[in-house]
Amino acid sequence: MEQEIHVVFPHQLKPISSLSKTVIRKKPVFLRGKWNHLLFANYEVDPAVLQDHTPRGTILDSWNEKIFLSLVAFRFSETSVLGIPALGWRNFDEVNLRFYVKCKIDQETKNGVVFIKEIVPSWLVSKTANLLYGENYQNKEMHSSIEFLSSSIKNVSYEIKDSNSTNKFSAFVEDTGEILPQDSLGSYITEHYWGYAKRSADITVEYQVEHPPWKVTKVDDYVIKFDFEQVYGNPYSFLSSLKPQSVFYCEGSGISVRMGRKLKS
User: Fold this and answer.
1) Which CATH superfamily is domain 29-262 in?
2) What is the helix (H) or strand (E) element at residue 125, kind and residue range?
3) Contact residues for 113 (Cβ-Cβ < 8 A; gap 6+)
4) pTM more than 0.85
5) Where do the domains of the chain lie?
6) 205-252 per-position pLDDT tens digit
7) CB within 8 A of 244, min separation 6: which ones?
8) How buried is residue 114: exposed, middle or buried, by Cβ count under 10 Å (0-12/13-18/19+)?
9) Residue 219: CA atoms inside 13 Å, Cβ hemisphere, count?
10) N or C: which end of the chain has fewer CB within 10 A?
């Protein structure tokens, strides 16, 4: 039997989809470490409060049509920079104030956070982060404690000390955390994997943060004694008298932060 021979010319070939797509390479990992014993106090706020701080190329994100601002306190440990253990400041506390944005680039929508200010005890940490990522770190005297009251209950406490006052965020936490549904507030607050910093009116820095989903524990017994105006500025003074919509605790995990890049105007 005679076999038919079909000749296909190059212009008739269809491109392989996997090869025709643009391959986006991830930035190198700049920093690795662990974020543990995280406390989140989440405040529903007027969007107008955050408009001036929203970096170019991003828009405010919302959950159920509500805009949130979060006070977040945690322990940063086992820090390494470019694979080298950070000398002197491997383990330290951080307390930050942040809100949530979206950034759409090349048909991809990224969920991210913007930091109003991040408080750490180390001058070196604050200067390095401000230089590389355009963040607003500030160093102050800080203390923290984790007191295990039983096999399932602990008291987690963070303090920022100023010359005239002590700001405190503490909570009694039960080990009842669970991975929450993606449409829940707990998932929304804890699963933003991009950071955006407003370096100037025209320049936004974007960087990627990687960690597994965290178990979230709802907290009912907590203390927030904070002079928000003194620590974060006059626009946030109203938070001192505002009750948070919710407070969460996460045990946390290992994390990695990749090198940043400037977004195109």
Assistant:
1) Acetoacetate decarboxylase-like (2.40.400.10)
2) helix 123-133
3) 98, 99, 100, 101, 192, 194, 195, 196
4) yes
5) 29-262
6) 999 999 999 999 999 999 999 999 999 999 999 999 999 999 999 999
7) 41, 42, 43, 71, 224
8) buried
9) 28
10) N
